[in-house]
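Input record, target 12 of the design panel.
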């Protein structure tokens, strides 16, 4: 039984780590596609930062400087 609890704890930790490692997006960043600037340009509704990650990709990082 203790082995199963240890395995469960490790698997929850690994899942949390894998789910968060590719995204630094915070709740403060709200990226909106702005086609006036280009076909793949995004503008943050919260701070006004601009990002062009490329066609078919979404911005993954907060560019807000505070």
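The sequence produced for target 12 reads:
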């Amino acid at each position: 039984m203790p082995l199963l609890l240890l395995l469960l704890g490790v698997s929850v930790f690994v899942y949390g780590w894998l789910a968060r490692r590719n995204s630094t997006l915070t709740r403060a960043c709200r990226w909106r596609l702005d086609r006036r600037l280009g076909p793949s340009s995004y503008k943050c509704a919260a701070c006004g930062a601009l990002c062009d990650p490329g066609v078919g990709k979404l911005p993954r990082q907060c560019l807000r400087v505070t």
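The first strand starts at residue 31 and ends at 33.
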